[in-house]
Write a structure and sequence with these properties.
Elements (H helix, E strand, L loop, with lengths): L2 E6 L3 H12 L4 E7 L2 H11 L3 E5 L7 H9 L8 E6 L4 H9 L4 E4 L4 H12 L7 H13 L18 H11 L4 H8 L3 H15 L4 H10 L10
Parallel strand pairs: 1-2, 1-3, 3-4, 4-5
Helix pairs in contact: 2-3, 3-4, 4-6, 7-9, 7-10, 8-9
């Protein structure tokens, strides 16, 4: 089954380049091209993509606002958003994560990395490598939360000891397979623990688990993996 990708960027040349790249992958298809955030929301509702490749800086409804609208729509619960930006824009990246984005990439990423990122996000994983997000997490912890979705919400006491351990590993960037190997579990059991933790904490994906892990002190910057 092909991964259905919706492209959202106000620059036609960039959209064309991304579209050609996505179409070059045998396991992907482009289901739409949006020129701004409002268009992206409308096309997401119409085409039900697996992944929206979202630019942040667009006129009108920008990528952050559109991400929040898409991830907050109960009918689009299975749609993942992968934000494209530059790592220098830490505040924008943090805003995108708070809005529900499942990950982010710099626009200078290599083509093969972009395709791999789409696959990762489509599979339900968060594209948040520890090295890339270390500075962002520091900023997140210091930033005011007014106006941001309450991702912490439930107390971590609702989690079992194993679930807390799994959430910490998610925050360190481990995949389900990595977690399974680390804890001597089957990949299915690791996935089950992750999904139960997300349900108990009321979050939609692993990216928000990462935010919770750092905000609650379950994981701290500088902790060993």
């Amino acid at each position: 089954m092909s991964i259905r990708v919706l492209l959202a960027d106000d620059q036609a040349l960039i959209r064309a380049g991304f579209a050609a790249l996505v179409r070059s992958a045998a396991d992907m298809e482009v289901v739409g091209e949006a020129v701004d955030g409002e268009d992206a929301l409308g096309q997401a509702r119409e085409t039900r993509p697996d992944v929206v490749l979202m630019d942040i800086r667009m006129p009108g409804t920008d990528g952050i606002s559109a991400t929040g609208l898409i991830t907050g729509d109960a009918e689009l619960v299975d749609v993942k958003v992968l934000v494209l930006t530059t790592f220098e824009d830490d505040d924008l990246v943090l805003a995108a994560l708070r809005a529900g984005a499942s990950g982010f990439l710099g626009k200078g990423v290599e083509p093969v990395e972009l395709l791999d990122a789409i696959r990762v996000v489509a599979s339900g994983e968060a594209l948040l490598s520890p090295k890339a997000t270390r500075g962002l997490i520091d900023r997140l912890l210091a930033a005011p939360t007014d106006g941001a979705p309450d991702l912490v919400g439930a107390d971590l006491d609702v989690l079992t000891e194993r679930e807390r351990e799994v959430v910490a590993l998610v925050a360190h960037g481990l995949t389900n397979d990595d977690i399974a190997a680390r804890l001597f579990l089957s990949p299915l059991t690791a996935k089950t623990h992750v999904n139960r933790a997300m349900t108990k904490l009321g979050v939609r994906d692993r990216a928000q688990l990462v935010v919770i892990a750092y905000r609650t002190g379950l994981v701290r910057a500088g902790d060993p993996d």
